[in-house]
Amino acid sequence: MKVLIVSTQYPYPKDNGKKIILSSILEYFIERYGNRNVEYIVVGDSFLEEEPVVKVKLYNKPSVIKQVKNVFIYSGLLRKKSIQEAVLFSSKIKKRLIEYIENNGFDIVVYDTIRISQFFESYQFNNTKEFVYLDDLFSVRYEKMLKFIKKFPDVDFNVIGNFSKFLPVFAQKVVSFRILSKFLLEFERRLIKKKEIETAKAYSNSLLISQKETKLLNERSNCSTVKSIRPVVINRKEILYNRNFTGEPIFIFLGALNIPHNNVSIYNFIKLNMNKLIEEIPNIKLQIVGKNPSPKLIEIAENYPNNIELLGFVDNLDSLFSKACAMIVPLLFGSGVKLKALEAFSRGLPVIATDYGIEGIDLPLKGECIVENKIENYVHHMKMLTDKTVNEKMSKLSFEFFNSYYSKNAVYAQYDRLFQL
């Protein structure tokens, strides 16, 4: 059995939620078939941050002139492709990809989102089983972002997030203007909603991380081919409970800070709550884990040098999480499954989150975490969790939940069904 994954990014280091899912799929196939039978193609990147674990091929993104032409023709005039598809499309790349798959006889190919599946939508392989990993429903994400912009007109944030690396520099500057970003978000939302439906109809195996969004896309497309897929957060067969909380009020926020919902939400949390938190818990520490903080976030954190730490990317979270009191996930908007909450559950770290912060996770809500949508109420919950007895009870419940539904064995059993092995 030969397997190929085609993506816009290599999944290591695992420094964002998308990479965690892609690495979960990659490591699953390696374990089932061995790394000599699994390959990976990256479209749009010219280098890898880490040594590859399988054979990897890199395809450069189209030239700036080609990107501009594509957006004008495919997105502007024809309305056939979303902007994020258009900036990556190239007939040469399409030809090379199809020829490589045909010549190497892959049994399974996984396409990472519509940005990649666009290359194959008009081509029929004879003996290759195709899967499209759709990540989140971007149409839903953009709809929520538009609502947020309307509700909080004075808040600035980067609407393109991680996708900025695929755009020319001048385009990144253009979309930073608020009026233009609103227009482009709405324009892209309509195009991508249409493409999500077309993809669900065109491919017999589409995968989404959120069960709620899976149901929504099946309804929109009048299909039953879209299924949900869980991530492997901890790639160990046996996960040991290892809490070392001593009562020290250390709280964690985790997330890539160039993603709009992360950056805006933690900035808003600090602005609303930090002074009150210091009054209630004078020795509180808020550790913010994630790359690419915005200048505004850096500036507000510097106002609290004794209480806020910007740690950047942390490769091994075990030690950090074992000593922490809790994770806060005060998201004001977002879509899909929030892997940061699963990271916490996997280590028995209590979580305080908004509905957005635990979206897509089918929690029994029997004490595994605290759901609080009023950001100003977090102070009360955070102080309560500094009690070691209260903390331990929630910790054990969250760990038990994770082990039942998201352990490696549980997720790989789901993958066996999804990939029909």
From TrEMBL:
<keyword id="KW-0808">Transferase</keyword>
<dbReference type="Pfam" id="PF13692">
    <property type="entry name" value="Glyco_trans_1_4"/>
</dbReference>
<dbReference type="GO" id="GO:0009103">
    <property type="term" value="P:lipopolysaccharide biosynthetic process"/>
</dbReference>
<dbReference type="GO" id="GO:0016757">
    <property type="term" value="F:glycosyltransferase activity"/>
</dbReference>
<protein>
    <recommendedName>
        <fullName>Glycosyltransferase</fullName>
    </recommendedName>
</protein>
